[in-house]
Amino acid sequence: MNVGVAHSEVNPNTRVMNSRGMWLTYALGVGMLHIVLLSIPFFSVPVAWTLTNVIHNLGMYVFLHAVKGTPFETPDQGKARLLTHWEQLDYGVQFTSSRKFFTISPIILYFLASFYTKYDPTHFILNTISLLTVLIPKLPQLHGVRIFGINKY
């Protein structure tokens, strides 16, 4: 009997994005962020959409691509401490449903932000740069790659 063991996964980080209701919670969180930004009186609709996109992508970059390790104590001999959450997701298997969802969601948000800002050049450039910062690290060719040694340890 293992006392204090609450899960059967070697690394619970690998399956958390597939848990029941996670995608709905994620979408509702993004929607709530947008509603909060729209409720600020001096933000116009284009500014609120751009801020929603940039804040979402910044959060996604930090939590999926910058932070390494796991908040759980895992019996994997420290293998997870060198991997980002994106690299741990679905045990590193590419093109799973959760990976596709978290790749498509910033693209959809980008299209919405671009449409509601009426493709204003300033907003468009900010939204495009923001999108690229979260899409490029998701490429299968960059799995486990540390460019210029950034985030190596």
UniProtKB/TrEMBL annotation:
Pfam families the UniProt entry points to: ORMDL (PF04061)
Subcellular location as annotated: Membrane
InterPro entries cross-referenced by the UniProt entry: ORMDL
Key words of the record: Membrane, Transmembrane, Transmembrane helix
Domain of life: Eukaryota
GO CC list: endoplasmic reticulum membrane
Cited PANTHER family: ORMDL PROTEINS
Family from the record: Belongs to the ORM family.
Assembly information from the UniProt record: Ceramide-sensitive subunit of the serine palmitoyltransferase (SPT) complex, which is also composed of SPTLC1, SPTLC2/3 and SPTSSA/B.
Name of the featured protein: ORML1 protein
UniProt source species: Upupa epops (Eurasian hoopoe)
Gene that encodes the chain: Ormdl1
